[in-house]
Design goal:
This protein is mostly helical and 113 residues long. The protein has a single domain, classed as Arc Repressor Mutant, subunit A (Orthogonal Bundle). It contains six helices and no strands. The longest helix has 21 residues. Keywords: Initiation factor, Protein biosynthesis. One of its GO terms (cellular component) is cytoplasm. One of its GO terms (molecular function) is calcium ion binding.
Amino acid sequence: MSEIYSLIRRLGATSKYKGYYYVAEAVKMAEALQERPMKITKDIYPILARKYKSTPSNVEHNIRTLINLCWMSHRETLEEIAGCTMEDKPTNSEFIDILAYYLYSSHEKTARQ
């Protein structure tokens, strides 16, 4: 989990944002769901809401707030992690997928060496 937190911090977010924890957990869940399409509103928001005693709507909002912060303050780093330039701010599911894929591909590169 520390690797996920480190990646989120590279994007300018800190633990003062609730979305920091939600994104970290969501990325961890997305990594586990690599074999099938991730349905963020059905697979992730309800589980996080239960875990953190919140609502799916609040989870979604807090993740969006964190993405806005990362987009505004560290867009270049986010594009570097995504591996492409982005015209628009990523959606919640795109952001989580970008981070999960980045970590997954990093592990694959390490395993091949």
